[in-house]
Specification:
Bound molecules: flavin mononucleotide
CATH class: Alpha Beta
CATH architecture: 3-Layer(aba) Sandwich
CATH topology: Rossmann fold
Structural class: alpha/beta
Number of strands: 8
Number of helices: 6
Largest sheet: 6 strands, parallel
CATH superfamily: Flavodoxin domain
Radius of gyration: 19 Å
Order of helices and strands: HEHEHEHEHEEEEH
Strand content: 15-25%
Distance between the termini: 41 Å
Number of domains: 1
Oligomer: single chain
Helix content: 40-55%
Length: about 200
């Protein structure tokens, strides 16, 4: 084998190795829980994804509920294509990070509706929660934990809780305190092994 073909062969092998790694890594969906115009969840989701991608330990994807235009569950005469796409994207994930915002001491109606749509697609997967609100979205998170338990989603303990007062400017421009990045990594340190463990009972 000549120099160039050897080099080419090595590059091909490297590419194949990379593809194999991507295929064996778990898929983690970062779910944006709010859908309103002017929402801040895309800023928080992008920050979590950037931190997560640096770890290189899973295939992380932002999943935006707003894109699926889900009608209220069971509403008559509505287009079902969004629901089919929603089922498909959630079924593809091995685990989740929920980006949760507090609305009236709970999660958004949009997130509750999106959770209610599916059952098997959520079952036996792991999740972490990143929340925000005046008290870090703590009350919404506790509500979400109850719902996730019913859906057989194993939710980890570490919970990055962002304050609308100290991690955002004017409540809208996301400027997280440095310590919050550590919290995201500690949360993912728990989500990834649980995801791997739960894969063994589903696959
Ligand atoms: C309908 C509504 C209810 C809210 N209720 C609460 C609340 O109970 N507790 C809280 O900490 N923040 C509350 N907030 C403030 C939101 O947490 C804040 O606006 C946040 O940015 C909303 O997330 P989003 O921008 O992604 O939609 C509420 C906001 C809305 C729109």
């Amino acid at each position: 084998m000549g120099f160039w073909s050897k080099l080419f062969g090595t590059e091909e092998q490297e590419k194949q190795k990379e593809e194999e790694k991507t295929m064996t890594k778990s898929n983690i969906g970062i779910i944006l829980g709010s859908t309103r115009e002017g929402r801040v969840s895309p800023q928080v989701g992008a920050w979590v994804k950037e931190l997560a991608d640096k770890r290189g330990d899973a295939n992380y994807t932002i999943i935006d509920i707003a894109e699926y235009k889900l009608p209220l569950l069971g509403e008559a005469g509505t287009d079902a294509s969004g629901a089919a796409a929603w089922s498909e994207i959630i079924a593809k994930q091995d685990g989740f990070v929920f980006i949760v915002q507090e609305y009236n001491h709970s999660i958004t109606g949009a997130l509750k509706n999106a959770l209610d749509y599916l059952r098997d697609e959520w079952n036996n997967k792991a999740a972490g929660i990143v929340s925000y609100g005046s008290v870090g979205g703590a009350r919404a998170t506790e509500h979400l934990r109850g719902i996730l338990s019913e859906l057989l989603v194993a939710h980890v303990r570490v919970h990055p809780a962002l304050s609308l007062f100290t991690d955002f400017e004017n409540g809208t421009d996301f400027k997280p305190a440095a310590v919050q990045a550590d919290s995201v990594n500690q949360m993912l340190d728990q989500v990834i092994p649980w995801t791997t463990a739960l894969n063994t009972i589903r696959k």
